Each structure stands twice: as C-alpha cells, then as structure tokens.
Amino acid sequence: MTTPLPGSPPSLEGLIEENRLAIAQLRGLLDKLTPVIYRQPFGAGGRHSLGKHVRHIIDHYSALFGGLEGGGESIDYEHRRRDETLEAWPHRAAERLVSIETSLLALADQPPTRLTLDYPLDEERLLLGSSIERELAFLTSHTIHHMAILGLLAEQIGVPLPESFGVHPSTLRHWRREAMLSPVTEEEA
C-alpha cells in the first residue's frame, strides 16, 4: 500500500485496503458466532441483531458493485436488495464478505470512472456526481460505524474483539501518532 503525502487525497489502493481490512475484521467476528447468537435480538422491540447490521453492511457493498456492473450509471444505496438469509446465517454472510473482498481487489484494475449517486429525497430525486474513491471512502466510514455498533452488541454477550474493531482508520492513525509522540515515563520503561 502506498503512503500518500500529508494533505494529499488517499489513493484508490489505500481506500481499497481500508475497506478490505474492515471486511476482514468483520469476517473474524463472524467466525466466532453461532447462528443463535448472530440472530439474538437487542434493543427496544428486538429490532437490532448482529446479523441485521452485518447484512446492512453487505447490502451497501452490493449496491456499489451492482451499480458498477451497470456501467456506473447509478449507485443507489436506498433501493438495495435486503437478503435476509445474510442476517440469519453467519457462514453465508462470511461467504459474501469473501466475494466482496475479491470485488474490491478487482477495482484496482478498473479505469477511473465517473459515477452517479442516485439519492432520493421524498418527492425529489438527486443525481449526484461521484467517483469510486468517494464511494469507497463512504463505505469505509459506513462499515466502521456499523462495526462499532456490532462491537457494543458483541461486548454485551461476552464475544471478545480486538481493540481496533470498529475503529475508523483515521482514529487508528491518530492513536499511532499519539503513541509515537508521547514520552515514555520511568514507570513504563
């Protein structure tokens, strides 16, 4: 992975790698879950489950790749396929995540493409210009946001996760910078 100069936009390869790392962490969580735990309801009215958040993440990647397969004419995150088997069976979700990782890698060979984000607003439909880099940056943040929720839910039922699970790459970079700048005290040495 190339390291961009300070202040320069992240490279496509860097954005692909951020997404792949998040997906790999998510697969690591799925490896620890039984279908019963994966489907366990949380929250008022039982509207949340680990599976629903994982399915939601997968739906967004599927919307991006579906739009790219259609020539990039329209990416639509609102009218996405909601495959309920992915929120019921962790092994099916893990298989789909492997497929997403493969699709992410293939993006590195794709020529720069102008994308259109289809964004409905009640009675109005906005068609917003975008790029694969912008959509990958969005997907990183969206995925990490839901992984943070997954981390909280998993913690409630005693599923151990690494400290970096559900932490945005920018925060991880900040932690590394802070660790390099903080002086070591005599007690720590």
Automatic annotation (TrEMBL):
Designated name of the protein: DinB family protein
Domain spans labelled DinB-like: 22-149
InterPro entries linked: DinB-like, DinB/YfiT-like
Organism: Halomonas tibetensis
UniProt cross-references to SUPFAM superfamilies, sorted A to Z: DinB/YfiT-like putative metalloenzymes
Lineage of the organism: Bacteria, Pseudomonadati, Pseudomonadota, Gammaproteobacteria, Oceanospirillales
Pfam families named in the record: DinB_2
